[in-house]
Amino acid sequence: MRTHFGGFEEVGATKVDCKNFKRDINLFIGKHDAQMVINRLELKRDFLPDFSCEYFNLEEGVLGGLFWADQDMKRNYLVFGDVVSFDSTFRSNKYDMVFVPFTGIDNHHHNVTFAAALLANETADTYKWLLKVFKKVFGSAPRVVVTDQDAAMKKAIAEVFTTTRHRLCMWHIMMKVAGKVGKPLKKDKTFKQRICNIVWTDLIEPVEFETKWMEMISEFNLANNTWLSDMYSLKADWIPAYYRHEHMSGLMRTTSRSESENHFFGQVANSSLTLVEFLSHFETAMEAQRYAHRKNDHDTRNTVPEWLTEEDIEREADKIYTRNIFNDVQDEIYASVHKCTSKSYTEAGDFIKFFIKDLQFQGSGLFEVLFREKDMVLQCSCNRYEQYGLLCRHVFCVLRLCEITVFPKNYIMKRWTRDAVTNNSYQGFSNKPASNDNVEGVQGVVREIMFGNDYIVNRLVNNMEQLVIYRDQVKQQMIKVDECIGVPQPIPKKDRIANLLGFNQPTEDTIRAPVGIRTKGSGSKKRFKSFHEQASKKSIRKQRRCQICGSDDHDRRTCNRGNGENQPK
């Protein structure tokens, strides 16, 4: 706050004031935590278009699971939901409920959140409920799901997402390698290079992978390593060589996307939050994510890249793709000019088969490209388009050789284009229902105003004079609105907190927050003891007692009874 306001004097509150305010919030929430969150989400479901919320209870009304998704999430899923990663993260709230965000990749190649859930446990039945709700809300299962090696997740996905390809996280598995191969190989750079070369690549076929894997196992004497043998038996679930021919298989090879998403939400969540606070922080994080998406859209439309070639197809690609994706395509176009050359070509039925030499590729670097000009059909043996939805340098090289300057329209995948999704519409929500009956009409007018404002600002962004005039007009309207509404009366503390949080206290609690649950990542509840405390306890020895008379001032060797004294004569 000091940084935000420019000094402690400008904050307007002391540290004690902030602590007292936090106390007031906790007292306001009290035992109503779970009920307030459910009421808030159900109110959103009633008033916001296409908002979904589902939950279930355990015994005695304890919240067992909660799922929610809004209109923007659903719209993003329709475009970017071909590959979904989800992973459980912990310590996001005081009840140790597991937070499960569903993550994809947007047209700027950044994370996008499709839905979120809170779970009281991580059993297979709970994950089944979650996936069934996801399928119900979104209408379909994703083509590919990437998770870690959680057995409960695996069982639930197999039973609910029956048509989905389930892949394991390469990142999680490779992170375990160092601890499974022993200390000598842990620091062996040659071993690291060998295993990374055959795992972190999608340019080799399964036969080549198996051959190189066995050579590595033999060379480093790892035949008896049980863990590596187990991972090899699961190779079809995590090695790219086994799914390189699947559509969009390279889009998300690891749940490091989920790890990144968990870190993103971790910046606004911690293990001391109530559910009310967690939901508020989640909404703040989503606003930040959507703002970043709008900023990327703006930068794409209002900046010009640095050209790398003289090819017309490079200029056309800039008008098609977002900036981040264009940078990737631009690199391929540049490589097609400076790093690729045609070795030969031959006719293959209706096609012409080109043999393109890639000078940057290790090994033979020879790729086959099939091309049929009448309907612009292209296919390269590197499978880059099939895996990522973007054309490769070898295809661009063939287009250049054939003097084709127009970008092939049938190879433009919508998910990467500038107009994949429209700018997020206004999704503001008040905890008070609108006064008029036509709520949808009010929301429609609000969206039109927000869209019009964005449109005017985007059109005037390069005209400072007109932009200042428009700003002054908006300020004048703001003054008129304040004059019409008048000065508001002081609001009671309870109502101020309710307005700030966006939550009202319920009149009745039928849902309770879980207490004392244990999840895999919730950690130990025992207090850590210092070395001094542990040592002092060890130093306290048990007091000896005489085994004959039970006295603690002597032992059996010096006991009078044991020596015959005081015995009857």
UniProtKB/TrEMBL annotation:
Highest taxon of the lineage: Eukaryota
Domain SWIM-type: from-to ranges: 367-403
Keyword line: Metal-binding, Zinc, Zinc-finger
InterPro entries, per database record: MULE_transposase_dom, Znf_PMZ, Znf_SWIM
Region (Disordered): 516-569
Chain intervals with Polar residues compositional bias: 560-569
Molecular function as annotated in GO: zinc ion binding
Stated name of the protein: Transcription factor interactor and regulator CCHC(Zn) family
Native species: Helianthus annuus (Common sunflower)
Lineage of the organism: Eukaryota, Viridiplantae, Streptophyta, Embryophyta, Tracheophyta
